[in-house]
Write a structure and sequence with these properties.
With 66 residues, the protein is mainly α. Helices cover 68% and strands 0% of the residues.
Amino acid sequence: MGMAKEGRASPDYERRKEGVLYGLLVCALGSIWLAQEIGAIKTGLPIGPIIIIVIGFTMLLPHLKK
């Protein structure tokens, strides 16, 4: 399943895999942000903007590989 004839993953499979990874990344970063906001994590860094920047870079990575 999800494999093309030559043993490579199909484009649909790759898109789904990429979507799952982005979803996990956003959930993880959101959890860190929430933990900081409720005081469970004490940092001097503004986590919110860093999370947005990381999400942006991860969305750009597939386009930079080409």
